[in-house]
Amino acid sequence: MSEFQELIKSFSKSREYVRDFFVYGFKTRDDFSEKSGRTYDNERRRIESWLSEYIHSEYTKNGKNISIAMDSNLLLTNPLYRVWKSKSFTDNDIMLHFFLLDIMQDKEPRTIEELTNEILANYDVLFEPQLVRKKVKEYEEEGLLICQKSGKQHRYLCADNLAYLIPEELPALLEAIGFYHIAAPLGILGSTILDNQKTANDIFTAKHGFFGHTLEDEMLLVLLDAMREKRAVTLIQRSSKSKQIQKTEGAPLKIFVSTRTGRRYLCLYNMQGRRFTNIRLDSIKEVSLLDVIPTYMEHEKDLENNLSKVFGVSFGTTRGTNTIKMTLYIHEKTEDFILQRLEREGKGGIITHIGENTYSYEKEVFDGNEMMPWIKTFTGRILSFESNNPYLKRKFYGDMRQMAAMYED
Amino acid sequence: MELFTEIYNCYFQIVDEICKAARETPITEKDMLALAARFGYEESGFMIVPKLINNWNLLEKTEEGYLSKIDNPEVLPLTTLQKRWLKAILLDERIGLFLENAQLDILHAYLKNIEPLFTPENFYYYDRFQDGDDFTSSKYVCHFRTLLEAIRKKQYVDIRFCSRRSKDVCHTYLPCRIEYSAKNDKFRVLCISGKNVTSPRVEIVNISRIDRITPTEKTYDGEIDLAEAIRTSYYKDPVKLLITTKRNTLERTMLHFANYEKRTKKLDDDTYECQIFYNSMMETELLIEILSFGPTIKVLGPEDFLTKVKDRVRRQIALM
Fold first, then answer.
1. Are residues A199 and A150 both part of a single domain?
2. pLDDT (tens digit, 9 = 90+) per residue, A324-370?
3. Which residues of B touch A163 (CB under 8 A)?
4. pTM of model > 0.90
5. Are B320 and A400 in contact (CB < 8 Å)?
6. Please, are residues B187 and B237 in contact by the beta-carbon 8 Å criterion?
7. Rounded to the nearest 5°, which phi and psi values hold at B212?
8. Cβ pair B230:A74 closer than 8 A
9. Residue range(s) defining the domain that contains residue B95
10. Are A336 and A304 contained in the same domain?
C-alpha cells in the first residue's frame, strides 16, 4: 500500500470529492461507490488535512458523513483555495526552485552551464545540465525568468518583483487584491499574489459569495482563452443528474453567473443547431480549443440582442415566448420596498399602478418557468397570476395549494 | 500556463519561510514544524521536515540546529498568469476605489504587454440587482477611502447616513470590515457601535447611504473578533428544512444555500433534512429564498420562523 500524501498530481479527482463534501455534505462512504473504498479514504483524509478547521463529521444511521462547513459571510479568504496549493512535485523540482532563484537574485544573466556549476559549488548538488535547462525553460514560460539571447548563447536572469517595480503603488494594490481575491473571477490567482507578498486580506468579506466556484476555475481559464481568441471549443460534460458523458461543440460567448443560486454557466452558440445554450461550468470536465470562428462577433451581437428576453439562462424552445403577468398587493404608504424589489429584480418588466394598493408586473421571456422561483418570493401578496403558457398558470396555483396543505395546522 | 502548478504550492511557501527563518540563526525541527503548521496543511510538517533534513540540501546541520543554505531575501517575481489576473482587475470599475488615476497609469504601464485574463464583458451577472452602487461617484470614493483608512488605524468615525426608513441618523462607530455583496452589487461597512466595544454588537451601514463621515481623534487599541461577534448574533436554533428530491430540489438547494453555514443529512432516498444557521439580519432574505422553492421544501422550525412562513402562505391563499 502506498504511503499517504497530502499533495496530488491531478486536480480533477479531488475536485469532485471537495465539491461533494462542500456542496452536499450528507454523503457517506457508501455513497461514493464509483471509486474504491480506499480511494475514498485517501481523498477524505487529504481533504481533512487541507481544510481541517472546516471539517464537520457526524454519525448518522447511514454511516459517518463528512462535510466542509463554512460561513462565507465571515471569512477573509476562500479556504477552498488551499486545494489549488497542493500540486505534487519532485525533490529536483523543489531543490532547483530554491537554488535557481537564490543564485539569480543578483540579476546577473547566466548560461545553463554556469547555473549548473554554481549549484554544485554553492549547494554541493550535481544536476545534469539538461535537467537545469528544462526547469529554466519552464520558469521562463511561467514568466519568472527572462532569457537574453546573444548569438547562439542564451543567458537567463530573474524577472523583477513587484516591490522593486512599483514600490509606491504596491500597498494600495495589495489592498485591492485583498478585495478582488474573494470577489473577482479566478480569485485564486489573487490569493497566490498575497502569498507571494507574504500578506493577507484583513478588511474585506464577501456576502452572497459562492466559494465553491473556484473548483471550476481550471475549465474557466481555458474557456476565457477561447473567448479571447474567438475560438470554437469541444466540451466534455458530465450530467449531475444522469451522470452521462456528453460531447458538445460551439462558440463560447459569455460566462453567465447567478449571484443567488450558486451556479455559473458557459453560454455557447451551437453552430450546427444554430442556437444558444447555457452549460453549467461544474458539469464541464474537459475543454479543447478548436479553430478561430470568423463569425464570432456576429454571434456575440445576436446574444446581446436576445438577452432582454432571457430571465435566467434559458433561451426557451422554438415555440415562441411566454408572457407573465402578476398582480400584487402593495400598501402604497408603507411597502415602497416591495416596489423597489420589483424594479431592481424584475429585469425591466413593466410595473403599472392599477388601483389602490394594487400593482401589476408584466414581462415577456423565452422561458417563463425560470421566473417561477422569483414569482414565489412574493408569496403572501399575489392577487393573480396569468400567462399565455397554461402549464405555468397551473403550476403556480397548484404550488400555492400544495403549500397551503403542507402548512395546515 | 497552468493554474495547478507547484509554484503556488503551499509546501514551497513553508520551505521559503523555514529558509528565511534559518538564514542567520539556526532553527530546530520543532521550529520547522511550527512554521509548517502555520503556513501548510494539517500533516504538512510530517511530510516536509524529514525531507528538508535528509533530502533537499537546503539546510545545513550545526550544533545549535539548522541553518539555511539559501540567502534568497527577496520575494518571487510574479508569473505571467498572476500578471494577467492583475491586468484584468485593473479593468474593473471598482479599482478606482483603491487606486488614484496616476497610480493606475503606472500599473497599466507596468502591465502594458500583458493580455488581461478576462474583461468585464466576459461575465454576465444575470440576476444581480439593478440598483447597485455608483462606484465612480467622487463622494462614494471619498467615503470608501475614509473608511479604509479608519479600519487600518482602528479609528472611530462619526457617520451620518440615511436609514432604511429614510431617517437621518448620526452615530459614532468603529468600522471593522467592508463587505461586498455580489447579489446587491453594494459595499457595506461592518461597524461596532461606539458604546459597545466590550460586548460588541455589529451594525451594518450601506456605503451608498452615507452622507458624511468625520474621523474622530479616538482610536481603539484592542482586538475585536468580528466573526465571533457576528456568530454570536446567530439564533441558537437554525432553520430546519425538509427537502425532497422532486424538481431536482436537493441539488438546487444545496447550491443555493452554499453561502450559508449548513448541515445536511439523508433521511431516506427521497428526503433530506438541512439546517441553516442565520441571524435576524438574514431572516427575511432567507425566508423569501425558501419560499422560492415552493412546496418542494418544508420548513420544520424554529417555531418563530415557521409561523412567518405559515402567515405568508395563509395570506396568499386568502388572496387567491
1. no
2. 999 999 999 999 999 999 999 999 999 999 999 999 999 999 999 99
3. 74-75
4. yes
5. yes
6. no
7. -155, 140
8. yes
9. 80-122
10. no
